[in-house]
Design brief:
alpha/beta, 2 domains, elongated, Rossmann fold, three-stranded antiparallel beta sheet, formyl-coa transferase, domain 3, about 400 residues, homodimer, about 35% helix
Chain lengths: ~400, ~400
């Protein structure tokens, strides 16, 4: 953990989360609760655990994918096929504030841990479920992954080159994007529970969650009566040049700078010209109004490219960004290696038992100026005995017997 | 409002939000609080209000953009340049649980409504700020919009055709994606405040927030030591065909179906072959293992396209999706007109005073099986008197005087 900045104490201290999530849509949700101080007990099977641990074909250790979505949690392995194992999870449910799962449709109910069962054991439990498609959808029994949700939820249709096929947005919005909406609902339910004492059954579908992130495009459709188009690097709203990326030296795949002049800010255009060293064009009627700039977009692109193509993207961002909104296109390696993120605690380094030193993006919101502290993801079953003791008061002797009986493993 | 499904009562009933947000990053955050039952008083200037109301050049009425991010709120206009106007907002801050703003860097402090001021008036206030770049970043004074955040935050670098330039993900992740992370922090701070009585100063940068949504790609970089690449419609993790879109009849810009076979599920491939009517290929060593399928990806694409190109995307989804993860690429018009979303309350219709009947995507999470109810966005200043009365006990006479003095307007 970086010690450059003091860390924020967790807001969710004292909240117990019974975490039966796997892969990303569910784990991203409980990950944030753990970052914010909740006690997240991740229940995994005794053999391989969360399949997200072993993503690559040759992985012998927990994949970075797993580390990124399971830090600050504790892992307890439980054989849910054994009656005693199932009983342990039900005992934990009695003590839990939150239950969270994202198995395939019907799986948690077949295990005997559906909302009807757990809400009888603990009427105050906030019970969250992420599925691919919503109850009542013709596809409610279908499996989904991030890309399926992004295909069916509209995000792909508005992403990519205008003359090419749909592209998948790189961010895993189907997974983490859905997990965040579930988390907002969980926290709201906890706030309500403080008044009523009653839990809530929360359900979200990954397809449905995608609609929340493309409401600008629905606005376009509301006005045009047509499907919102793909617009490459431009804004989906369109019609306001310059609003695009421009190539920079030395011409690598991500050597571009974004340049934008706001509709609401008529001074942006002359300010941009000044930054580009083209004061001679200020007042030129070919470019003076937004309508004129739409007409002369190709010339505008040439004027800007003339400047940007001779400079690297950071110099372009520095010069142009001081005048109008502008930003260098940054890739994941540049971001990960930028010391400013580590100084500010937005990226933190952890020491993982098998992966060694590992840098990871953390919760980006600062609390009273401080980032939240990040701890490594647990190895499979690393905290079984500890969680049994903390949650259920089970002592060392009984814990050893549970291990011997293969109810837990560590 | 649709009455097909009963609506969930709001979890955040009784929470008062003093909302000085505009455009999207801030409004999306307070929008969800309003959907979930909070009393959101949107404070706007007396002349044009939130600039998001008038986005298009020819708009005489509130743009669909505004409607999408401001439903269920109440609008109060206040002239913040007048001492009495400023005093009113400070009086409201005394009564507020949450304050939220996303003006340009330094603007709210120049108005005299910075955290240092409001936390003295109300030590329990949860005070949220969204900016483009973080405090301590070299760009902390720069303006940002969604596309600038997506350029600088890495999401563009991993989106688009592998042989083309970066593309902007269509979803407005820089705005709504940031707003959701702020909201999670606000709700967590409210949970903590119930114990401590103390408020919190929350700050998030749109650039930093982008990192949260591309952690898979950081995992790729951790393993490869290289920037994560663009992969078109494929998953950024790569190397697991089929994992792509396939063209369907009749060949329109969004007539594609996504087909995926999971690494973790070796039965997916023979099941897919059966669905495609190609049982003859089950067991063929050219395709039997993941490694073999990587080698013969072009042939696999041809086998699937042979099937999909003769059928429409919904038929493809029905047949293939019954066997393996698969999903039709849907555009915003298809989604908006799909009655299933309205039946389930995921899209709801409102009657807006100037826009008429308007369908909008709503909060996708269901509470005890019910969606949240959506009400129209307020006209500028529509609720000034009502809010003055509810929050500050200001009666009709004083409210009329405030209007006459141009402190408020309606």
């Amino acid at each position: 953990m970086t010690n450059i900045t003091p860390m924020a104490p967790g807001c969710l201290k004292g909240i117990r989360v019974l975490d039966l999530t796997q892969f990303e849509a569910g784990t991203s949700c409980t990950q944030v609760m753990a970052w914010l101080g909740a006690d997240v007990a991740k229940v995994e099977n005794t053999t391989v655990g969360d399949p997200g641990r072993r993503l690559g074909p040759n992985n012998k250790v927990d994949d970075p994918y797993f580390l990124n979505y399971n830090s600050n949690k504790r892992s307890i392995t439980v054989n849910l096929k054994s009656p005693r194992g199932l009983e342990i999870v039900k005992e934990m449910a009695k003590k839990a504030d939150v239950f969270m799962e994202n198995f395939a449709p019907g799986a948690i109910e077949r295990l005997g841990l559906g909302y009807d069962v757990l809400s009888k054991i603990n009427p105050g439990i906030v019970y969250g479920q992420v599925k691919g498609f919503g109850e009542g959808s013709p596809y409610e029994k279908n499996l989904a992954f991030d890309m399926i949700a992004q295909a069916c939820g509209g995000t792909m249709s508005i992403t990519g080159d205008p003359n090419g096929p749909p592209a998948k947005p790189g961010p895993t919005l189907g997974d983490t994007g859905t997990g965040m909406l579930m988390l907002i609902s969980i926290l709201s339910a906890l706030i309500q529970r403080a008044q009523t004492g009653k839990g809530v059954h929360l359900q979200v579908a990954m397809q449905d969650a995608m609609l929340h992130y493309i409401r600008n495009s629905f606005g376009i459709t509301a006005k045009s009566g047509k499907a919102a188009p793909r617009t490459g690097a431009a804004s989906n709203s369109g019609g306001n040049p310059p609003c695009n990326i421009y190539p920079c030296a030395p011409g690598g795949p991500n050597d571009f700078v974004y340049v934008y002049t706001s509709r609401g800010n008529p001074e942006h255009w002359p300010r941009l010209l000044e930054a580009l060293g083209r004061k001679d064009l200020i007042g030129d009627p070919r470019y003076s109004t937004q309508a004129a700039r739409v007409e002369h977009e190709a010339e505008i692109d040439a004027i800007i490219t003339e400047f940007t193509s001779k400079r690297d993207k950071y110099e372009c961002m520095r010069i142009i960004g001081a005048a109008v909104p502008a930003g260098a296109v940054r890739d994941t390696l540049e971001l990960m290696n930028d010391p400013n993120f580590e100084e500010r605690g937005i990226i933190q380094s952890i020491d993982h038992p098998t992966n060694g030193k590992f840098r990871m993006a953390t919760w980006p919101v600062r609390f009273n100026g401080k980032p939240v502290p990040v701890k490594p993801a647990p190895l499979l079953g690393a905290n079984s005995d500890e969680v049994l003791k903390d949650w259920l008061g089970i002592g060392a002797e009984e814990a050893a017997k549970l291990r011997a009986d293969k109810i837990t493993a560590s």
